[in-house]
Amino acid sequence: MNTQIKSDPTVFVIFGGTGDLNMRKLAPALYNLYLDGWMPKQFSIIGTGRTKYTDEQYRQTLLDGINQFSRSGKADPVKWKAFSESVYYQSSDVKDHESYKEFGTRIEKHAADWKTKPNVIYYMAVSPNFFPIIASNLSKAKLTQDTKRVRVVIEKPFGHDLESAKELNQLLANIFDECQIYRIDHYLGKETVQNIMAFRFANSLFEPLWNRNYIEHVQISVTEQLGMGERGDYYDGSGALRDMIQNHLLQLLCLVAMETPINWESDEVRNRKVEVLRAMRPFTADDVRNSTVRGQYAKGWMEGKEVPGYREEAKVDPQSNTETFAAIKFFVDNWRWQGVPFYLRTGKRLHQSASVITIQFRDVPHKVFPSETSESWAQNRLIISIQPEMSIRLQVQAKRPGLDMILNPVDMVFDYKGTYSNQTPEAYETLLLDTMMGDQTLFMRGDQVESAWELVMPILNTWQNKKSLSFPNYSADSWGPESAEALIARDGFHWFTLPLTSKK
Ligand code: NAP
């Protein structure tokens, strides 16, 4: 977390240094940390991949990425020059264990130049197939032993199912201490997501209401207008449940449902989150039938353009059974949440791109005002909008100005844009800074990842073993299959959407 204390001198080794993630997110994030004064005085970024680049050529590719994707716009030539002098490139294949010695030599040289042992962060921005081989080769080259200074960042997806997640955890545990492992879920670095904890635990207002007595249900909705783009081959082996629910949406649920931590220690916060996953009701075969919905998009039109159906997308099996939409009703079986449904929904090619959590409070126990006074009665709602709009709204009933007593719902809004003039840091800036500072609060612990997999496995297995005969079952620019509406309507609710101002 931001403390204005800078980390010790740091060397980043970025596996996948020529890849999309580094170009679009990591390099711009590191550059913005530099601009904002968060980088330590002595740092070095070593990108690596098989592509042959000189340091100069590599710096130019990063500059192109930064000019295109940085939140601070095109790089200032003087500042870029100063930053880029700390950027290097090493061409190597992750499978070639000999080449790891070169990282050791470079790190030692930095240590000698800086006259101190630096923190070393190995960032795995490569295909998950390579996570084990990189970890093993780092270990063989004796680059992992300093548990205080050496850290490893693992990108998503962490495992393909429970068994593979356990295997990967085991392999990492043989090489690293848990305090060295940073499993990234970039959702946790988003400003609004961090603010869920600030809202809940820094205000006395919400806690008395934050339970089954006052909350009727919770909705967590992460919807996208985009289709596959270039990611068809990855996505077809994954699907909405693995790609979104198992990680991002369940993490959001944990933040809403967790108990109050006794302090801000990273393990204390993470313990409270794991407890939520452990309390979640396991799915029986009946639950999978009655409480889950899967969908796959058909071709259609989005904003005046014809778009292909999922099975017609590049690098997707034309008979694919992969879901591009999932809606699931979860329960958290503890005193606080008994009987309160948590509806999670995510999908591609939907009408709107938005990530929104809605907490719907129970209705008033007795209506004092006659029904004709309320034009559009709505129960109180707390609406946490993560993207594209960043806001927290409390929806309350109020009297409309005028001589007669007419009630309307109105919003009390905390809007980032209106409240703060500064640009908000990107999630990757927060998470990279936390990695440098050795703060694991916003990273997933091994047991947390396994608990999340354990929860979704019965759904995953049923969906995999039983092909959907109805696919494709929703059209582009819709809100998903009709059965998703039915899932929530059966309980007397409906999915909420925001009148958002911007689309993405
Ligand atoms: P990508 O664009 O395909 O990049 C893959 C990287 O791996 C390239 O730098 C490539 O470099 C390197 N690579 C491949 N084979 C290699 C080998 N044998 N030896 C050394 N380097 C090798 O993938 P990406 O989109 O950046 O994704 C990387 C990771 O981040 C994945 O785990 C992905 O799930 C995760 N992620 C990505 C995003 C995103 O927005 N892109 C978002 C969230 C998570 P060379 O070709 O030069 O060898």
UniProtKB/TrEMBL annotation:
The keyword NADP applies. SUPFAM superfamilies: Glyceraldehyde-3-phosphate dehydrogenase-like, C-terminal domain, NAD(P)-binding Rossmann-fold domains. It catalyses: D-glucose 6-phosphate + NADP(+) = 6-phospho-D-glucono-1,5-lactone + NADPH + H(+). NADP(+) binds at residues 50, 93-94, 156. It holds the Pfam family G6PD_N. Pathway: Carbohydrate degradation; pentose phosphate pathway; D-ribulose 5-phosphate from D-glucose 6-phosphate (oxidative stage): step 1/3. Keywords: Carbohydrate metabolism, Glucose metabolism, NADP, Oxidoreductase. Residues 197-495 form the Glucose-6-phosphate dehydrogenase C-terminal domain. One of its GO terms (cellular component) is cytosol. Residues 13-195 form the Glucose-6-phosphate dehydrogenase NAD-binding domain. Its EC number is 1.1.1.49. Substrate binds at residues 186, 190, 224, 243, 348. GO terms for molecular function: glucose-6-phosphate dehydrogenase activity; NADP binding. One of its GO terms (biological process) is glucose metabolic process. The keyword Oxidoreductase applies. Coiled coil: none annotated. The active site is at residue 248. Catalyzes the oxidation of glucose 6-phosphate to 6-phosphogluconolactone. Belongs to the glucose-6-phosphate dehydrogenase family. This is Glucose-6-phosphate 1-dehydrogenase. The lineage of its organism: Bacteria, Pseudomonadati, Bacteroidota, Sphingobacteriia, Sphingobacteriales.
